[in-house]
């Protein structure tokens, strides 16, 4: 059986960091796992303006296409688990991303943290217009995720990444209780 975790949450909540930590936890336990940050799957631009290519959702669609290709390659070399960090905030996109992971049982995990924690993380990694966009969108994006309720479970990400990772893989049923 193939299994996937989609880590979602607002920008700066720690999706990529926790995905990497889950990869380390599973690898240490002897589990073959792929880890993918979808931000790296759509570094292309500008979006095409030719007929037939929708601009709305273009980048998320590109992420899904590329994720499907990566997953096929990882499966071919023996991966049975994949951890994906992604900015998914609707049921429709949850379905599209899940469909990109052919043959997987998919669980969506929402990472949450106090707004002040997220703001501090954003200030530590971003600058300029990117920082301002993330800070401005933070409250609105949190409300969108609250309303969408597309996660299977949520985990507070205000502890060391390996502790959060261990909680996630345990709650997902991937590994029995691990000592952190």
Features:
alpha/beta, globular, 180 residues, 17% strand, P-loop_NTPase, Rossmann fold
What's the helix and strand layout?
Layout: E1 2-8, H1 15-28, E2 33-37, H2 58-76, E3 81-85, H3 91-99, E4 104-112, H4 115-125, H5 128-148, E5 153-156, H6 161-171
Parallel strand pairs: 1-3, 1-4, 2-3, 4-5
Helix pairs in contact: 1-6, 2-3, 4-5
Question: Any overview of this molecule?
Answer:
By secondary structure, the protein is of the alpha/beta class. Strands 2-3-1-4-5 form a five-stranded parallel beta sheet, sandwiched between helices. It contains six helices and five strands, in the order βαβαβαβααβα. The model has no long low-confidence stretch (mean pLDDT 91). The chain has a single domain (2-171), classed as P-loop containing nucleotide triphosphate hydrolases (Rossmann fold). α1 (15-28) crosses α6 and α2 packs parallel to α3 (91-99). It is globular and about 40 Å long. α2 (58-76) links the parallel β2 and β3. InterPro entries: P-loop_NTPase. This is Adenylyl-sulfate kinase. It comes from Rhizocola hellebori.
